[in-house]
TrEMBL record:
InterPro entries: MinD_FleN (IPR025501), P-loop_NTPase (IPR027417), ParA/MinD_ATPase (IPR050625), YlxH/NBP35 (IPR033756). This is Atp-binding protein-atpase involved in chromosome partitioning. It holds the Pfam family ParA. The keyword Nucleotide-binding applies.
Length: 287
């Protein structure tokens, strides 16, 4: 007799190829308070302004607040979809012409609905994102089984840290664990005083990585964002700084990061299969 897990494994093998265009990117951090969610929202917006279609998924378990940052009301989440209380299209919130928000929910709650029928129904609804370029996930901070599940399933992982000893130590701990499943991880240095400081910190982390992690693993610096009071002011006002002040230095730094993400995606698109169906099948099978 086949168990639920066996059926889900069979379903994984039957991955559809309709949504290979969409690249799933998880943005995470070793600890809270490093600006991960603020960066996720601003990077997603920057990509949308560059002409890419972007879906931003709030998977910050216990602290889902992208709806607050984006100044929208999220009445239902992905959990309501899994409960068949509504369809996926009903929870999607339009932010601008190229950007939408998908309110998320706790992985523990999803566990209760991880069966073949629910998964099939959910995957059939992913067609609404077939023409999207990026599916960006704002995960919780820290090393948690639910967080690692999202990171392992994503096409790319970006780790955010700041120039504080505790944050750097936690970022390395996160990188060490993810490196067991990924050959490449990207890093963003946030709240740095200068490019020199960003490069120095990254250099020290990279040195430890090369000394201690597997030889074929690569840690690449995606970019940095300087410390700027405008970011704090915009966060307090629930505004995206790249939207309100697109020409200031920190906004240009975020746009540079967005452009690098786009180039990385272009290089990888011919090398591997990707897409939302594959991502969510991995998530469900993780339970």
């Amino acid at each position: 007799m086949k168990t639920q897990a066996d059926k889900l494994k069979e379903l994984i093998k039957d991955t559809t190829k309709k949504d290979l265009k969409t690249r799933v990117i998880a943005i995470t951090s070793g600890k809270g308070g490093v600006g991960k969610t603020t960066l996720s929202a601003n990077i997603a917006y920057a990509l949308s302004k560059l002409g890419f279609k972007v879906a931003l998924f709030d998977a910050d378990i216990g602290l889902a607040n992208l709806d607050v940052i984006l100044r929208v009301n999220a009445n239902k989440t992905i959990l309501n979809v899994l409960k068949n209380e509504c369809e996926l299209k009903d929870i999607v919130i339009k932010i601008n012409e190229n950007l939408v928000l998908i309110p998320g929910e706790s992985g523990e709650e999803i566990l209760n609905f991880a069966d073949e029928m629910t998964l099939n129904n959910f995957l059939s609804q992913l067609e609404i994102f077939n023409d999207y370029d990026f599916f960006i996930i704002d995960t919780s901070a820290g090393i948690d089984k639910r967080v690692l599940m999202f990171l392992e399933a994503a096409d790319d992982v970006i780790v955010v840290t700041v120039p504080e000893p505790a944050a750097i130590t936690d970022a390395y701990a996160m990188i060490k664990i993810i490196s067991e499943k990924k050959d490449i991880i990207y890093m963003i240095l946030n709240e740095v005083s200068s490019e020199k400081e960003a490069n120095n910190i990254f250099g020290k982390i990279l040195k430890v990585v090369k000394q201690n992690l597997k030889s074929n693993f690569r840690l690449l610096m995606l970019g940095y964002v300087k410390r700027d009071k405008t970011i704090m002011t915009c966060s307090t006002k629930r505004e995206l700084f790249v939207k309100e002040f697109p020409n200031i230095q920190v906004s240009e730094q975020v746009f540079n990061i967005a452009k690098k993400i786009a180039k990385i995606s272009e290089r990888k698109v011919l090398d591997e299969e990707k897409g939302l169906a594959k991502f969510f099948k991995r998530i469900f099978s993780g339970f």
